């Protein structure tokens, strides 16, 4: 399976490549009042406002620092009722595309953040998948996609 690899703190994580719509440089974001601290803000993507999540803050490590290789990974997030909406994931040290043997994926066997999925051993170190479906709690999904049922 092809994956997009990035770091959260010192650890390596990945999204299945099929989930990645595009990757853009980190950019200035508009704050979203009353949103959780790990909601980085809104990205202006060709006139379309796209909410952006800071993956580091969401995982409980210090907020993402902007590096030369920090990126916003855009995904089509399942926003409910069969709708998808663009969502940005602010990630430090985006490494690029790699391959993971699906047979090598194992359950992590520990609790923790519900959006963290299976792990695989790799030459560069352990890699953990991020589950888009488990990324946002229902109340945050409602805050970011309050009109998910409406036509975009």
TrEMBL record:
SUPFAM superfamilies, alphabetized: CheW-like
Pfam family, one: CheW
Ranges for domain CheW-like: 1-141
Name this polypeptide is given: Chemotaxis protein CheW
Originating species: Massilia violaceinigra
């Amino acid at each position: 399976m092809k994956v997009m690899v990035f770091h959260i703190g010192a650890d390596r994580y990945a999204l299945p490549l099929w989930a990645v719509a595009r990757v853009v440089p980190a950019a200035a974001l508009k704050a979203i009042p009353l949103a959780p601290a790990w909601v980085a803000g809104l990205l202006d993507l060709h006139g379309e406002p796209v909410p952006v999540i800071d993956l580091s803050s969401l995982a409980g490590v210090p907020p993402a620092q902007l590096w030369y290789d920090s990126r916003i990974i855009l995904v089509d997030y399942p926003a409910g009722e069969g709708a998808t909406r663009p969502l940005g994931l602010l990630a430090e040290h985006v490494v690029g595309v790699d391959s993971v043997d699906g047979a090598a994926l194992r359950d992590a066997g520990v609790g923790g953040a519900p959006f963290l999925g299976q792990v695989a051993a790799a030459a560069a170190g352990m890699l953990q998948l991020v589950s888009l479906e488990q990324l946002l709690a229902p109340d945050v999904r409602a805050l970011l996609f309050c009109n998910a049922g409406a036509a975009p």
